[in-house]
Write a structure and sequence with these properties.
Strand content: 5-15%
Strand order of the largest sheet: 5-6-7-8-10-12-13-14
Radius of gyration: 24 Å
Structural class: alpha/beta
Number of helices: 16
Shape: globular
Number of strands: 14
Oligomer: single chain
């Protein structure tokens, strides 16, 4: 029996369509900038918000109507939920999905029982993948919800909790590998601290580096060739997360010799919490060859926490696609780490939310590709930095000069050449014209 009987497969109908269950901008097979939209965007539905979100918040209980859930935390219910999930993926025409281990299968009283539960649900996931053609983009382990992780997982002060976390990741990596996952993500949910009075920061970071090296070693052992990803986030739930932004993550990876094995999964709402724009975080990771994937959401600038809303702002999605077209995205994807609002509680709202955001990213892709083709921004950037294309600029960039030579140059010239205007307002106007 269908969980979404009123929905057929979502199709592209074009910009003039007023059908809320159709795409206006996302045409999967349309070629833009040399690739199909489907290949550019690699849309991924996330299991935790879409299938497990309840609508609860610190001020109220669950609101979501999910008629396919029987209210139990049984393996049977989890297997049924997985089949419903794939009906949703197929009807949405999403090529990928992603999950945490504890999203798809209930946690048991022991690790052995938890692993058995995960294996049972993974069997259904494998069957559904083979039937539908939907692929697993990435898996990960939830090492933040259970009270045992109150002090962290890989950065815990309790060595036996560290061992438990290692065993849990081992199993999650095995299942991800068995299901053909293209990536494995580490989100350090509680890898940070609340108070330095009781924290040995260096020891915790050393332990985190050791944990990641063990993961790399085990991936080689089982033949997992997927990309490891770290997801930056500055706060929540700890006051200071060790993976606070792209710069902190890359500094950590260099310090512990892990840059050959890890890239970053960048999220808009996390960038905002870190005091950055999403475009900044993407560019910072991309220019260093570390951009692996993105979480496609947005925050509410009037609220100071991680609201994980669906991104529908064309301005934002165009900015994101300008960077993604420059650096590429595969083997990562555009992951809808976003949840419907507490008030949007009916199953059909899941479709409206995903369709709107898929269209927003497709519109952003179209606009960004046109801007790049026209050189709308790049020609201004080239002109702004044109002095660096002179003989002097080339010598500096090549490392063929020094302070003394540069002092001599300025002494003889008397004063530096006049600056050029940055034309920021003009370029913002240009950007807006492309969104018309």
């Amino acid at each position: 029996m269908s969980a979404f009987p009123e929905v057929t497969k979502i199709r592209y109908e074009g910009p003039d369509s007023d059908n809320p269950l159709a795409f206006r901008w996302y045409n999967p097979d349309e070629v833009v900038a040399g690739k199909t939209m489907k290949d550019h965007l690699r849309f991924t539905v996330v299991y935790w918000h879409t299938m497990r979100g309840t609508g609860s918040d610190p001020f109220g209980s669950a609101t979501m109507l999910r008629p396919w859930d029987d209210g139990t935390d049984s393996v049977e219910n989890a297997c049924n939920r997985a089949r419903v999930a794939f009906e949703f993926f197929e009807k949405l025409d999403a090529p990928f999905y992603a999950f945490h281990d504890r999203d798809v299968a209930p946690e048991g009283k022991t690790l052995a029982e938890s692993n058995k539960n995960l294996d049972a649900v993974a069997k259904v996931l494998r069957e559904e993948q083979q039937r539908s053609g939907v692929k697993l983009l990435w898996g990960t382990a939830n090492m933040f919800s259970n009270p045992r992780f109150m002090h962290g997982a890989a950065t815990t002060c309790n060595v036996e909790v560290f061992a438990y976390a290692a065993a849990q990741v081992k199993k999650a990596m095995e299942v991800t590998h068995e299901l053909g996952g293209e990536n494995y993500v580490f989100w350090g949910g509680r890898e940070g601290y609340q108070c330095l009075y009781n924290t040995d920061m260096k020891r915790e970071l050393d332990h985190l580096g050791r944990f990641f090296h063990m993961a790399v070693d085990y991936a080689k052992q089982i033949g997992f060739k997927g990309q490891f990803l770290i997801e930056p986030k500055p706060k929540e739930p700890t006051k200071h997360q060790y993976d606070s932004d792209a710069a902190a993550c890359l500094n950590f990876l260099r310090t512990y010799g892990l840059t050959d094995y890890f890239k970053l999964n960048i999220e808009t709402n996390h960038a905002t919490l870190a005091g950055h724009e999403m475009m900044h975080e993407l560019e910072y990771a991309g220019m260093q060859g570390a951009l692996g994937s993105i979480d496609a959401n947005t925050g509410d600038l009037l609220l100071g926490w991680d609201t994980d809303q669906f991104a529908t702002n064309y301005y934002l999605t165009t900015q994101i696609m300008l960077v993604l077209l420059k650096y590429g995205l595969a083997p990562g994807g555009v992951n809808f780490d976003a949840k419907v609002r507490r008030e949007s509680f009916e199953p059909i709202d899941l479709f409206y939310a995903h369709i709107g955001s898929m269209d927003a990213f497709a519109k952003g892709l179209r606009v960004a590709a046109k801007m790049i083709e026209d050189g709308a921004l790049s020609k201004h950037v080239s002109k702004r930095y044109s002095s660096w294309d002179t003989d002097l600029g080339k010598k500096i960039e090549a490392g063929h000069t020094n302070f003394s030579e540069l002092e001599k140059f300025i002494m003889e010239k008397g004063e530096a050449a006049s600056n050029q205007s940055g034309r920021q307002e003009l370029l913002e106007n240009v950007f807006n014209r492309y969104l018309d």
